[in-house]
Amino acid sequence: MWFRNLQIYPLSAPFELPAEALHEKLSTRPASECGNLEFSACGWEPPLGHHGKQLVHAVAHCTMICMRREEKVLPAAVVNQQLDRRVRDLEESQGRKVRRREKGEIKDEILLDLLPKAFTKTVLTYAYIDSRNGWLVVDAASSKRAEELISLLRETLGSLPLRPLEVNSSPVQVMTNWLQGGSLPQAFVIGDECELRDPGEEGSVVRCRRQDLEGKEIAAHLKAGKAVVRMSLEWQEKLSFVITGELALKRLKFLDLIQEAVAESEAEDHATRFDVEFALMSLELGNFIGSLIKLFGGAVKA
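Now predict its structure.
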């Protein structure tokens, strides 16, 4: 259950809904399978999956939730192939050109024909609310997926006062400064991966992996005017991650110090292990996110 990506959203008002009350709210939008003629369906799933029934999992001041999205898989190539065939048959049989609007109508008919036969893909998106620190943390690789969960949560609760994370110092400028010789707090260590971009509209892009980011080669790119838009870091020998200029965290890994703590807990069943892992993860992320935001001058006050 360890989060692999982080999209962070500060709450603009205290979240005071108890876990039991939140469960009741989420119960009004349970996850369900796609209907025959539905492209997608989403709702709330127990974070413990088939090991639990509660739609929330609370540890101390943190509450885990899980959105399940089911969507039909209709490859565009298959749809277009059938569209081309039907258009060709119609033009040959009626001796006329099929116009754009009619093509659209035929395509809609094809989609309706294929939907009941299409495979269904299931995507689970986990998030937790940290009521003490005032954050919603979503395990999503893209802001689009995170905002889909937020939208469903707002519909379910009626409102959800939060905003995108904004900081006082430009992340791109700060990261560029680090590689130009600026100092990082002792808790953070520069990794071996980065992406550099020329600020021009059609500027060049340089992506580096397993590279000394403080070496001469990177320094030459920086001297030429490129800026750092993504780079890898490590925090307190506990977490490694890649951070973007939008403050999204990707490829998050919990390192040996944390994994050893999990092993020492000797949790025997799935529910207990989930509880231990969530407690450790939320505790470490609570400390880490605060330190991360300070790196960029602190959060902008609402």
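Helices lie at 19-26, 76-94, 100-114, 143-157, 171-179, 216-223, 256-265, 270-295.
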